[in-house]
Write a structure and sequence with these properties.
Its EC number is 2.6.1.16. The protein has about 350 residues and is α/β, with parallel strands linked by helices. Helices cover about 45% and strands about 15% of the residues. The protein contains twelve helices and twelve strands. It has helices at about 10-15, 15-25, 45-50, 60-75, 110-120, 135-140, 160-180, 185-205, 210-220, 230-245, 285-295, 325-345, and strands spanning about 30, 35, 50-55, 80-85, 100-105, 125-130, 145, 225-230, 250-255, 275, 300-305, 315-320. The strands form three sheets. The chain has a five-stranded parallel sheet with strand order 4-3-5-6-7, with helices on both faces. Helix 8 (about 185-205) packs parallel to helix 12. The longest helix is centred in the middle third of the chain and has 22 residues, at about 185-205. The structure holds fructose -6-phosphate.
Length: about 350
Amino acid sequence: EKGGYEHYMRKEIHEQPTALRQTLSGRIDLDRGDVDLDVDFPQGYLESLEEIQLVSCGTSYYASQYAARLLEEIADVRASVEIASEYEFDGGRDPWRTLVIAVTQSGETADTLSAIRRAAGAGARTLAVTNTLGSSVTRETNDTLFIRAGPEIGVAATKTFASQVVTLALLSVAIGRERGTLSTANARTLLENLRTLPGAVQQVLDEEEHVLEAAREYQDSESFFFVGRRYGYPVALEGALKLKEISYDHAEGFAAGELKHGPLALVSEQTPVLAVLTAGSDGSETVNNLTEAQARGAPAIGTVSDGLETKSLDWTFEVPEADVFEPLVANVYFQLFAYHVANLKGRSIDKPRNLAKSVTVE
Ligand code: F6R
């Protein structure tokens, strides 16, 4: 059942190229520079849309943060994201013009269900983005968009994060095209980049040995910091969550620019800093923040793409070219790093202590 892998988590990390192909399958129309999603919004709905609110928890919340930026940048629509348990709906004068999207792998997360009920109750239109056919969220929302990642057994979400972001990227294209804010040419470029992702992720997976070496070198650190800007910021948060939940080591993600506003006080030789330095993440600015951490002795580990000066880094992981999706590809290095640190420590990777795959209490 684990197909020769010792853990579901590692199997699911390696399934990402396939999962992403499924996510994209039959949905891209390069000729028209558009997408075909199995969601039919009412005639004129997307044009009259005022705002999109994404609600979610944990890893799905970080996928939502990535997606909110995509929606703003690609579709030019106002998009915000809120942790489901903190969410209060405010839909202005015409709540129906706010689309509230519940992003939930399992479709059963109580906090997310309760948030979407509040929004629906106040008159918003709702959409579920989920991996699970027939799940509760699909019965609570006006429409459902499936991410098609295939079943995820490991408690730590991996392939579903990638498929959530890609599904919401497709939705961004659909909305941008419908509203006329995204040109055919720009849509084609985005869709071509999306199509390269399965191959790009495979290239990262082929570097697993290199990640294992880094995990060996840094496994005994006191604490791990993850930093990034723009699309790299949610990936930094997600990298830290993955590491802490399966290795039980302290890990924290920061917006790279925030390091100097406090966290730098914690930095030492014992706190490696893992950074997203790819396209879509203003890597050259983040390198400056990393240098400050290195000056306090911290090892600097960078996920990098072409053209960035990386001589000063202690460790580099190469990310293939994919424009704003490069941080999503870089995330696969963070998944592998978390996995190997936890595995070297003999942790219960697929069922970490105190955690459950779907959290059905508020
Ligand atoms: C982290 C993790 C959790 C879930 C969160 C939301 O690896 O698995 O943080 O992401 O509980 O779950 P869903 O997406 O099922 O709503």
